[in-house]
Amino acid sequence: MLQLKNLLKAAFNSIMKNRMRSLLTSLGIIIGVSAVIVMVGIGSGSQKRIAQEISSFGNNMIMVFPSFSQRGGVSRGAGSFNRMTMDDVKAIREQATLVEYVSGIVMSGGQVIGNGNNWNTNIQGVEPDYLKIRVWKIKSGEFFDDRDVRSHKKVAVLGQTVAENLFGNMDPVGQKIRIRSVPFKVIGVLEKKGQDARGQDQDDIILAPSTTVLYRLKGDRYINMINASSYSIDTIDKAQQEVTEILRHQHKLDYGQENDFMVANQSSVTEMASATSRIMTMLLGAVAAVSLIVGGIGIMNIMLVSVTERTREIGIRMSVGARGSDILTQFLMEAVVLSLSGGIIGILLSAGIALILNTWTDIYTLIEPVIVILSVTFSGAVGIFFGFYPARKAAGLNPIEALRYE
Amino acid sequence: MKPVIDIHEIKKIYHVGEIEVNALRGVDLAVHTGDFVAIMGASGSGKSTLMNLIGCLDEPTSGQYFLDGVNVSALSRNEYADIRNQKIGFVFQGFNLLSRTTALENVELPLFYDRTHRIKDPKKAAEEALERVGLADRMDHVPNQLSGGQQQRVAIARALVNRPSILLADEPTGNLDSRTSVEVMSVFQELNAQGITIILVTHEHDISLYTSRIVEMRDGRIRNDGPVETRLSAGDILAQMKEEDECCN
Q: What ipTM, to 2 d.p.?
């Protein structure tokens, strides 16, 4: 075997002698590699962002929704038989050992008047634990306590968006507002939370005691949702199980009867969301990988042309004593150097694209080292794979015919 | 003394489609160290085929070929390549230099493939070979910056760099004008005078007069084999040409 250094030098020389062609050949690989890295980077970036958003939604959260019920085999549709009440919340609070915080949630909405302005927004009846479950903080003023809940007190805490739209730069704490003509006293303003995973403005909201919203605004018995949180992420599944059993007992469901509510927890939602974006990442990566293969075919194409074009050179090399294997290695080396340098340029290019995307657009790109290593390895493999056929063709030439080739 | 090249009853049959072409119909030839042989003949006489066989570019259909006492006819493709590398220097009609590659790099090329690493300093050996053919000042030129005669001398330097047993030249003056041809022949004569064995294929009678032995081929056989009676000296003729130039200016 000849010295690798010499072979590399020969490959490099021949690439440098055909700079334009080499660049065009590598372009396929450059685009392929940068496409793979950027696409997968966008995929894993959004995966990470979704995970962050879900965890910003709350802490070890368990969500309970009313579900459809079946009577005599007739399904009445989701939420058609809303049977969750404040008693269910009370039962969970008193009986569950793995649940740290719990809050019933009553959803309503409507026109709000304050400071001479009016605004249509969501009104949520919640309990003091709610802020801890959602990891939300008060910016000014204070939140209501259990006593306010018990006494159905007409106090409200405003989200940022509502506060800005009604009061502008003024501090709303202590002001009066009217929610659907019922007067409330503003006792606090929430910190800004931003958009949720679906792009909904989480600050366009008014929080009030659950009982107040339930009895004074809606005139109803049933609540829309229960949010709870477990002590830790490890016990979240057990806590969910516990909540399920308490509610089954509360609703007097017999063994074998289906739940008339749905329970989900944050980790399962996170898993689902990240599974979805993982599939998306894989799809993006696969599409980009196709372009890498197309780039490889480009290399094969050029190498085949190059073998024909350089038949005479091959003949000369053979006449001065090059073995078939020397010619094979030389051409293979050229293909690998072309595709590897294409791969490296591709990495630099994708780093640039990622930087641009991260600074100038909303798209968040996360380039992981493993994907960089993988795509370089793959581009090298593409060079070997697609370079082999032309190289073998070159090595198999008959020296006399190669020398005579015009 | 044992001959460098010893060929017995060599035959070569080509298959062109269904047709068999008898390029060589049984050739015997012995070439000794220091010989300067011209192989002559019309096209189709088999002289190029014989040249390719001697140069280990091709295998004979039958017969035996000893090069430096080694039976070459029984070797593998790789061994053929190694023999071309170490024992044979080629000079072609079309020069066959690598384009966009300097004269020095062209001359270094055979050393690149030398697995024995006999020559320790390839660059120095290549420089010496170029000096020998009088191109010391053109080492960094690429072929299209050189004249035909200069290119052929680079090719001769490349053929010499591996210190081969024989130098094979296939119509080396075929692409050159008469004056440059004489120049190239004078290089060959100088090298031969230094003891290098040279075999040259040509169809030009006046070129063959610079050698010391003429082998004439016809229809795949050797018809005539004898020494050159009145050998020309390329050096003298060049001097004569120079005189003529001066007188007429």
A: 0.92
